[in-house]
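Case study.
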Amino acid sequence: MAFISSSSEYALHCLLWLVAPQGRPISSRDLAEMQGVSPALLAKIYPKLERAGIVEAIVGIGGGYRLALDPRSITVLDVVEAVEGTKPLFKCRDIRRNCALFEANPPSWSTVGICEIHAVMLRAERAMRDELSRTNILELAQGVPAPIEFMQIVRTWFDQRATGRELSRQAAMRRSRTKGSPAD
Amino acid sequence: MAFISSSSEYALHCLLWLVAPQGRPISSRDLAEMQGVSPALLAKIYPKLERAGIVEAIVGIGGGYRLALDPRSITVLDVVEAVEGTKPLFKCRDIRRNCALFEANPPSWSTVGICEIHAVMLRAERAMRDELSRTNILELAQGVPAPIEFMQIVRTWFDQRATGRELSRQAAMRRSRTKGSPAD
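After joint prediction, the assembly is written out as follows.
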């Protein structure tokens, strides 16, 4: 598995659908189906974004996710760390202590400060994370060269999905009331 | 497993013993035992460094490894790439093509150039590799705050190991000749 997994890719792609001001929140199922990714997988990813304060979940009828912050203040790093955690690029085993000449009793000069090799790895990881923090999700969304009418089609699709679900729910309730009436 | 594995850590630590000009090449077994890491593992790692032109293997009696280049021209990135290969930080699945609205026929605007998300990940990976390339193994070795007499002790240890092995070899040959003599 790559260091930054497909879960981050799915999280980021689906967040782009939330960047445009929406009339209503969007369910993770609709986000997943719009993007052509697994709804089951996205249903595990989005609670992580919620816990990180990137999206908020609106519960109840017409519920779903919406951004919890201005998209300009959500960086790619925020999303990657919400999804992947802050696992290190390199896990130092501090093997400088193991030199045979120390005979299991390393002198203080050999363990002072951080290992030189670990220090280089930490600088590389910092450079990587700094670069990820330089782009926010508004910039990502604006980088997609979609024609202007496309986002209107997208909004209509999401609205139709939510409306269709609401109509199904109302019909089910009516059937349930009919079944439960004294005439049954 | 971390993105940069313990194999890179072992390779780098053991390379530091080769930085000081040595009287003779050092076997991967002696490098491993000096550093307190698995000789079997190091015996798999060092051929990768040899293929990358970082070390050269001297075969035959008194053989072993020595640096193939000036240590100032061997960067941490060179060693990490020799050991880990150039696996990407992020493997883009190009899921921008999968939008439900495209119905499996993505328009050209949606697939032009590189995906915006992938582009950010590539910049982050570049920043990480650039940082790894900023430090060479001479600088790493000079960063270890060992007292000046320590490297002499190290050299003596390696020399004694090599000499001990050579004496054992000669003794074994003598035994073999004695067994093979007409007196037997």
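Observations recorded in class. The beta strands of chain B are 55-58, 64-67. Helices of chain B lie at 6-19, 28-35, 39-51, 76-84, 108-111, 116-132, 137-143, 150-180. We will return to this complex in the next lecture.
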